[in-house]
Amino acid sequence: MSTAEALITIAVVAVLTFLLRFLPFLLFGRKERPSPVLDSLNKLLPSAIIAVLVVYCLKNVSFQQINTFVPELIAVAVVVLLHLWKRNNLVSIGGGTVVYMLLVQLVF
Amino acid sequence: MKAELRYAVRQTLPVMIGYLFFGTAFGLMLQNIGYNFLWAMMISLVVYAGSMQFVLVSLLAGAFNLPAVILMTLTINSRHFFYGLPFLKKFREMGKAYLYMVFSLTDETYALLCSVWIPDHLDEKKVRFFMALFNHLYWITGSTLGALGGALLKIDLRGIEFTMTALFIVIFIEQWISAAKTTRAPAVIGLLCGLVSRLILGPDRFILPALVVTVTTLLALRPILDRKANEKGEKGL
To answer: From the first residue on, what is the mean pLDDT of each consecutive set of 10 residues in chain A (108 residues)?
Structure first.
């Protein structure tokens, strides 16, 4: 691939990615008064999407082999328990990550 | 201004760790196929989309194929279409920063901006802008460092990618707790739609269908969900 072709490839990815992020603003952003549908989506959508993203993060979990689900299962439990106990983002995220790293590096 | 900067750094710390790691991985991969740190820096500056940039490495390694580039970008990044919806008004009110806020709406920035609570004495718009900007800077820094000398890194970092998963789980729990005042149904619907789509379609193709089904279900149940949210909201007062 020539330098020009590489630059075109990168530009196309950049422009399309931006357009996808900009599309809702283009379609719905101009209205002066927000519609009731969009108004309730504003309230309902974020927590639903976060839930889908949790599944997305764990998408490679598979129950075929022990090392493709046990480390995730334990680390997720650690995050949940730490967070319910301390309610401190950094403690929960840091603790869960350290446990996960130890599990995948030393145990599984 | 200083207080806003400090608050934004604190809020974005988990993303900092994750982005430095993933950025480094991206820089390393890019450098491996013969593109130096200037390319890594430039791509992370203008594209700024995690998983897509990893695919971009393989696209750059292959022969020039514009239709493939277009198709891959649209399928992998289509989920971003949904991220702007809660911010239609908020971003527009941010004046000069408006387009940058739209541009920088990655999975992680979306999740942080949805869930962040900003104290009254801070300028909300500034905090939001700095959070978006810092995440972008972590990503660029990671990519550049990775391309410069990530291979020299001798520490075993396997598993550090779990920071992102942990971040989303923490945000999920926070929303779950605060939803006691309104309704937890949207979180349950999202979780179910995600799980069912993942089980049926497999790990590589499920995210867009999952989001479409989630939004459709929310729209279909909107009258009930709205009523529930309002009822409980009143009781809470």
So the answer is: 94 97 88 74 84 90 90 96 90 91 90
Cβ burial B26-41 (10 Å sphere, 16+ → b, else e): bbbbbbeeebebebbb
CB atoms within 10 A of CB B9: 13
Query: Quick one: B197 and B111 in the same domain?
Result: no
Cα(B225)–Cα(B210) distance, rounded to whole angstroms? 19
Q: Is the ipTM of this complex over 0.95?
A: no
CA distance B124 to B127: 5
A–B: how many Cβ contacts below 8 A? 249
Number of residues written out for chain B: 237
Within this chain, do residues B197 and B89 fall inside the same structural domain, yes or no?
no
Point out the domain boundary residue: B152, B168, B201: B152
Query: The pTM is what?
Result: 0.82
Which residue is it, tokens 């789980």? B169
Q: What is the DSSP letter of A107?
A: I
Q: Which of B20, B41, B55, B85 to mutate to test the interface with A (most CBs of A within 10 A)?
A: B85
